[in-house]
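pasting for the record
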Amino acid sequence: MRFPIIRRHSVETTACRVACLMIISSSLACSDNVLTNVTGTSVRPTRVFADASIPDRSSDSPRSFHRLTDDTLWKFVASGKGLAIVGIKTPGQARGVYKNEILIGRAERTSYVNALSHLRGVHIVEEHPVLPTVELQFDDFAAFSVVRALPFVDYLEPTAVAIPMDGSTCGDMNLYSTSSSDIAFSALGDVIPWYYQEGYNNVVNAWNRTQGANTKVGVLDTGIDPGQDQFFSRFNAYPDPNLTRQESIVTPDECGHGTRVAGVIAAPQDGQNMMGIAWKSDLVVEKTGTDVLPAGHDVYFAIWFAYNAGAKVIEMAFKTDNYQACTGDPYSDCSGSCYFELQPDGTYAERCLYFSSIADEISYLYYQSNGPLFVAAAGTVLPVGVPNVFFPAELPEVIAVNGMNRDGSRQSSSNYGSKIEFAGYVNAAAPGAGSKGSTGVVDLGGSSGGSASVAGIALLTWAAHPTWSNVDVRSRLRFSAQHPYDQNTGNGFGAINAYRAVGGFEGFRIDGETCETQFTINTPVELNAVASGDGPFDYLWSTGETTGSISVQAGQPGETVDFFVTVTDRIENLHRTVYHDIYTLPANDTRIVCSD
């Protein structure tokens, strides 16, 4: 999906015209306009930051395009038919956008775009409807170098790169295990994989509270296979008079990757295949490529489309380029949005470059009051994962996920490092793509399977707490994980207990004294029923009281008094009972302090 294209004719530029650009840059630096985004939300973009609170582009990743020389950067731009995304800022300011604030006025931005349209060899292709960026096409290196040097240019980076799409990064699609230890079945006959069970992600119990209705996930991937009927006639197969699921999808899926990722998250309960974690959620699928190595431009506009379509969770199981060993001249042997580090063995290690346009957009949306939650695959490298997290999973606004084996160890091909936030069990069960040989239940391994599972659990969490922000949901995911206070480099905070994340009634305890001395016989004892979960709860004590806390009287010296309370979770209609004894020390006991 592309935004309406605004096209202008380019005319020949003279030295005077370039000089005029400089004058325009300075004269409009103070303009202030209210900008309205496509959802109708007004954003006042101009707030001048004179202090160091707004970092300049030198604080971006060392893999940013702006660190490249003109000659090197032009190779990338030229390989993508001369197309580039240009960020626009007020001259002298650190950048054009920071977090959720646009730092340049609308009129000023428009004037610079108009000025660019009058440069020789520069063509306006498309303007972003809200953010201060414009897509340009250059005829030659001279036009490119003139624009890059302009004082109102925040950054310039390629929109597309020459990456051969041979399907090699789509991953194998094998039939999922039908062993009784690996699957169970729903009442309708849908496959329920082992990691949905209690002791792993505990999705089956989370479904007692929510199945993801009234939430929407945006899947940015390789599309949906038209032969997978779970996303067509069977998407609304489950009979629910109060719910009609909505979807917007793009076909085809030559890779089979996008079909599987979307299925892990949102495949319906239809009695004929497998069911996704958030199987009542709505779905929007944007196709960012025919492989899991999308061009930055496609990702940039897909993110915005998914957000404007109402996606609460945006799943990105891709990387901006691959990580491999290259020999000889990197630019002739390895094409793509990458740079190369010479290794001790004489090979070049290819690393993903960092797109400032995508990073700014994700940050801008994440910090909105209604911002989405971004979930991304950390990356999968065969045969052994590497200690770095791929872009965009490396961004602080994005949840980076890798793959975890059944025994809790990191799947060997999944990347790892300090930026890993959670792990998802793999291999995940997914609906297959006919284009790759099977529309049955197949597997999805690596960080792609892991991130899709975490995205599904995030949807369940948001469905259970519809008024929460993305920060609230992210925090709940952390404190529902295996070790929320230990973010290790292997699996981050670990796997998430979905039942805990949605506020499930896992248990409760009674807080209060368990014994008394003869000196406190007539002192009331406070007993508190402390439930783990979101409730709402009903209480019924053995004394007949129906509040969460009660005041009771201990027995006579040497006597034990029994109390109990039954707590009921109203949503799940689940009852749990706990007993509590208070023992009073005999009158002749010389101890002053009780020992439990």
